[in-house]
Write a structure and sequence with these properties.
The protein has 416 residues and is an alpha/beta fold. It contains 21 helices and eight strands. It is 47% helix and 7% strand. Strands 2-1-3-4 form a four-stranded parallel beta sheet.
Length: 416
């Protein structure tokens, strides 16, 4: 029996197939792509990836492709394409500036899923890391969930058994940037009661599996488990620190759940900004400092829906003594930190150099502190600029530089 050839079209939407044929190679995106900022690898550029995958589709599905080519895509070609596809942080900037409106963020997610289904799969560091860990621990990290709150949850913070406000820190906060989670719960507890899922029930949101590895098959089980666990806690507002978790929960969970979620997902900075405006969130300590805020990709350019750009600035604006200065590239066009989308695991050197470009842009503002609100951003910037205990790379460090890196919730919690 002849083996059925791999179908490069199956599972792609009509819109995505049209987008493959829409790129004009105007190359506007090259001026904004963080990969192109630090490499000369044009094969890893958005136009090159689009046209390469378009060629796969045409070669295997069109009469022209079958008449004038082999009608096949070799394993070597797929391997080369995989290398270029994962040399990408999924920041979405190329889609933001695309002159014909190609939604590259969704397109890259879909094409990664297709490659995961093919003979070449996803990159080995992701296959043997986050994916294997998820199936064993329900998290991309190789640690049991049961003890995760012991890493960062302060003893003096009391959790309600059930409450309308529920907090979800996400895997990145727990194991990569626990300072973020501690700052968040201190701010929440200063206003009123809140709850969290039992640690062994607080599974990964699915972001690393969906976007980093292209593994979609686990999502239905994951989402149904999490929705039930959240509902059992009586949660009406599901407050999330990690922007990527928020992106997945808010826009992808309803798809896999099959209906509207029975709670409202929102970014912690949104709730804190609302509380600050209402006078519920009170800061007692004074500070005189100039800060710049880095908009994480998933908040500036979410999977769909409205970006979250104003809330963190409004929150900072309620505190006397803090002067906010924006970087040249901020809001919808903010620079990527290079830490997400599997980049740090698969292309660590490129990831480090992207972080350096962001760090240098922040320095040019003259700010004392750069704030962000994203675990990969915090990790990729802080561990490469300061002697953080969980540093795993030393591509660039400047211990004497006065610019400090901090998470916005950790920063504000110190002012309570």
């Amino acid at each position: 029996m002849t083996e059925k050839p791999f179908d490069f079209m199956e599972g792609l939407t009509k819109k995505e197939l049209i987008e493959l044929d829409s790129c004009t190679r105007c190359n506007e995106c090259l001026a904004w792509c963080p990969i192109q900022d630090v490499t000369d690898d044009r094969d890893a550029s958005p136009p090159a990836r689009i046209h390469a995958y378009k060629d796969f589709v045409e070669r295997t599905h069109t009469l022209k492709g079958k008449l004038f080519s082999s009608g096949k895509v070799t394993a070597e070609e797929l391997k080369s394409f995989k290398d270029s596809l994962w040399k990408c942080a999924l920041c979405g900037t190329c889609g933001e500036v695309c002159t014909v409106g190609i939604d590259t963020k969704k397109l890259w997610w879909s094409v990664r899923r297709k490659l995961k289904e093919s003979e070449v799969g996803c990159p080995e560091p992701l296959e043997k890391g986050p994916l294997q860990n998820y199936h064993k621990f329900r998290s991309p990290f190789p640690f049991p969930l049961g003890g995760k709150y012991k890493i960062w949850l302060p003893d003096d913070i009391e959790l309600a058994d059930k409450a309308e406000i529920g907090y979800y820190e996400g895997c990145g906060c727990t194991w990569d940037s626990p300072q973020m989670a501690e700052g968040a719960v201190r701010l929440l507890s200063s206003v009123g009661p809140f709850t969290m899922l039992d640690p062994d029930q607080s599974w990964c949101c699915g972001f690393p599996q969906l976007t980093g590895s292209g593994e979609w098959s686990i999502m239905a089980e994951l989402v149904n488990h999490m929705v039930k666990a959240i509902a059992d806690k009586g949660i009406k507002q599901f407050v999330i620190s990690c922007p990527m978790c928020l992106d997945i929960v808010k826009y992808l969970w309803p798809y896999f759940y099959g209906e509207e979620l029975p709670f409202e997902p929102l970014a912690i900075v949104e709730l804190l900004a609302e509380w600050a405006e209402e006078g519920k969130l009170k800061f007692t300590k004074q500070i005189e400092e100039t800060v710049t805020y880095h908009d994480p990709c998933a908040m500036a350019r979410p999977f769909m829906g409205k970006p979250i750009i104003d809330a963190p600035r409004e929150l900072l604006g309620t505190i006397p003594g803090i002067k906010l200065v924006d970087m040249d590239r901020h809001g919808k066009l903010s620079r990527c930190c290079g830490g997400a989308g599997g980049m740090r695991a698969v292309n660590s050197d490129v990831s480090a150099n992207i972080a350096k470009e962001l760090f240098l842009e922040a320095k040019r503002t003259g700010a004392d502190t750069m704030l962000t609100n994203c675990p990969p951003c915090y990790l990729n910037l802080a561990t490469r600029t300061h002697a953080a205990p969980n540093s795993v790379v030393e591509e660039w460090r400047n211990y004497d530089d006065p610019l400090k890196i901090n998470d916005i919730t950790q920063y504000l919690a110190a002012l309570l």
